[in-house]
Amino acid sequence: MSDVVNYVTDRNVGVITVDNPPVNALSQAVRQGLLDAIRVAASDKTEAVIIHCAGRTFIAGADIKEFGKPHAEPLLPDLLNEIEASEKIVVAALHGTALGGGFETALACHYRIALASAKVGLPEVKLGLLPGAGGTQRVPRLAGVEAGIDLMINGSPIPARSAAELGLVDRVVEDDLLGAARNYAAELLDRDAPVRRTSELPVADVDESVFAAASVAAGKRARGQTAPQRIIECVRNATSMPFAEGQSRERELFSESMQDPQSAALRHMFFAEREAAKIIGLERDTEIREVKSVGIIGGGTMGGGIAMSFANAGFSVTLVEINKEALTRGLSIIDRNYEGSVKRGKLSTDIAAECRGRIGGATDYAALADVDLVIEAVFEDPDLKKDIFAKLDKACKPGAILATNTSYQDVDAIAAATSRPQDVLGMHFFSPAHIMKLLEVVRADKTTDEVLATVMSLAKRIRKVAVVSGVCYGFIGNRMLEGYFREAQLCLVEGGTPESVDAAMFDWGMAMGPISVADLAGLDVGFKARQALPEAERGDPAANRVPDALVEMGRLGQKSGTGFYRYDAETRKRSPDAEVHEIIEREAAALGIERRSIAAQEIVNRLVFALVNEGIQILAEGIAQRPGDIDVVYVYGYGFPAWRGGPMHYADSIGLSTVLARIEEFRERFGEENWKPAPLLEKLVGEGRTLAAWAER
Ligand code: 3H9
């Protein structure tokens, strides 16, 4: 029938098969193929039709690559309305992930059967969109208003059985989906089941307050985002308008979302995340080493979290500490973390016990003789790290990959402490490592392609989003943070307060303000890192005055109960501290700074443009492969709002000339030391190009 949609008849049943790898996305060809097939089925001798998919999944949604291009007929909502209007029973047979427009296709069918392993969902919200092919109108008719709003605002897929409980799926089977779908169709015909059109079902009444409550909840959960509010409006329409009117309003709001810069940013993130996994210059078929067992050196918070990440993905893990006490302490932190995961409902007791059972301990490197990968996660002491790598070189088998979790140190120097620098690289996890998604993979000078490719594929197995970084102080993320934190501290002494600086960034969309982040990380961490550097490299002294003073007073941040804020011992809730305000004023006076009122916009511009400028420099130096990689680092590792697309996409979206103009203004006001535009930024503005265009070189 077509390359991507096939139609065959089997006695009295017509079977439509979509076959558009990799995920059966609804490209124009698929939509046309489905329309042709349903029209042929309408006029042949069959009595019922099954829609199913070849390959690994049912339709995973609209083809995101077509977004932003002119609409090509047939449009999905029209196609689905025609499927629903069929006079013959249409059964959708679901496997894999039936998502977005794919699940909407299923909802337009009259009955749905699914494999128990299938998941269904409407993830459009994650792309800054709403279900635009009748989903907002059909879901409330099947699952009710509250469950419907929840499904669409949450965006995460749910298992077939949960969908069946909600009324979104009619039958769940363990295997032989197509056989079961044929039997189901036969059964429906036998019992003269009606052509059950979802659009003709009523929507259960709900109190108006449900929508207000959902709107407030979405405002909190998805702070700053527009799509959830549009979804709620659509669902409210489903309760007050006839289907056709609700659907036409859904189309208008879908178009609005598509034009919204938030959706452009989130779609950019979707592709950036997948592109980051690809290493420029590396063959797709680069051989990778088998990794089954992992050794971790250091049982602190970081080492423990890394151990859990691997154990949770089925690897056997050996945690090595310097003595029995330290090992017991390390393993007990892991125990507590697993207990926490069970309490929060993230893992069942059985699964947690199974994962915990994969982690063993040792106090001797001899225990690492046979492991395939070792990750060193001790504190940031370069000599200690080199010493450990020299020992690992002796203890580990040939071919074992040796990785350091350092946040700042020179991975080339660490590799040089071994006789096998080709097997050494950085794996920089983010705390808490069993929860945070980001992994910076630091490619050292001599790291082989095979080792790099192995670690990138491992990252996927432990469900991390990996980004490759070259070697430099702080790699991509922490190096960019330096200017961001510097400006936060300068805004403080120039007239801000911890509260005003944090509020400016939080309201702009950051997960946490920079001052709270510093308190969470521990003020002593930055302090020690500064002390380890020659004085000339410690950064702007004006930016260090207040944090240094706090550390000297024993105010180390959350862990000591006081830092820039005061923390409740039980709840960890923070409150402002007048003493800190006094310290800030005192240090400002000592620096001869006349404090002034600083607007939130100035705070945002100074912090964000410092990030952007350094990011562009990192690109120019080839430390990051592409702008999207930096965006992935910031969204997954540093709480940058995904709906702003990461710092590089954000810079492109507001225009590089605007970014340069602000940086030049700051250079005038605050001096060249801190505000030197990246030469690549100046070049691109001169050429009228974007970072995205530059990346396509
Ligand atoms: C929508 O449906 C709007 C409608 O409501 C209304 C319309 C009017 N399109 O993730 P993977 C590519 S909005 C195009 O690595 P996995 C992906 O880029 C859409 N391409 O695999 C990658 O390509 P490459 C709602 C897509 O097994 C390859 O497929 N749907 C699409 O880890 C493999 O992807 C969604 O938002 C797409 N829709 O996960 C679902 N999806 O190899 C988005 C994937 O060149 N997709 N690709 O890098 C997903 O969540 C995951 O891809 C999925 C598979 C779970 C399906």
Describe this structure in words.
There is one protein chain. This protein has 697 residues and is α/β, with parallel strands linked by helices. It has an 8-stranded mixed β-sheet with strand order 12-11-10-13-14-15-16-17, sandwiched between helices. Helix 5 packs antiparallel against helix 9 (227-240) and helix 19 crosses helix 24 (600-620). The longest helix is centred in the last third of the chain and has 21 residues, at 600-620. The chain is globular and about 85 Å long. The model has no long low-confidence stretch (mean pLDDT 96). The protein binds (S)-3-Hydroxyhexanoyl-CoA. (S)-3-Hydroxyhexanoyl-CoA binds at residues 22-23, 25, 60-65, 76, 97, 99-101, 104, 123-124, 127, 129, 131-133, 135, 274.
How do the helices and strands line up, and which of them pair or pack?
Layout: E1 5-10, E2 13-18, H1 28-43, E3 48-53, H2 76-85, E4 89-94, E5 97-99, H3 101-108, E6 111-115, E7 119-121, H4 135-143, H5 145-154, E8 158-159, H6 160-165, E9 171-173, H7 177-190, H8 209-221, H9 227-240, H10 243-259, H11 261-276, E10 293-297, H12 301-312, E11 316-320, H13 324-343, H14 349-356, E12 359-362, E13 373-376, H15 382-395, E14 401-404, H16 411-415, E15 424-429, E16 438-442, H17 449-461, E17 465-469, H18 477-494, H19 498-508, H20 514-521, H21 523-531, H22 541-552, E18 566-567, E19 574-575, H23 578-590, H24 600-620, H25 627-637, H26 646-654, H27 656-670, H28 679-687, H29 691-695
Parallel strand pairs: 2-3, 3-4, 4-6, 5-7, 6-9, 10-11, 10-13, 11-12, 13-14, 14-15, 16-17
Antiparallel strand pairs: 1-2, 7-8, 15-16, 18-19
Helix pairs in contact: 1-2, 2-3, 4-5, 4-9, 5-9, 8-9, 9-10, 11-25, 11-26, 12-13, 13-14, 18-22, 18-24, 19-24, 22-23, 24-27, 25-26, 26-27
Bound molecules: (S)-3-Hydroxyhexanoyl-CoA (3H9).
